[in-house]
Amino acid sequence: MAIDNYTAISADIWVLGCLIVEIFSANEVWQGSNESEMMRDLKKFYVPKIHKDIPKQMWGLICECLNPFKETRIEAKEVLEKFVKVMLKMKIPELARELGK
What we know:
mainly alpha; globular; Transferase(Phosphotransferase), domain 1
């Protein structure tokens, strides 16, 4: 079965949400889970618990990236725009400026 571009891009956005969690928390998204537990959680549309190290402002974007329904998942351009806005709110203007170029 071939994977269309839409599915591939949608999967990339989902993975980006996982990476954002891991960058801010320095932990794996599904800590302590084995592969079968992770697949079970994914089938239940489970979103990982909020790590205390992740800024509250970032969770809205993370949830949009981890939306289990690919048809309504956020698009790449929106991710960048929202990420820049969050960085500005978090008083990280240098990063926001670089990402906004």
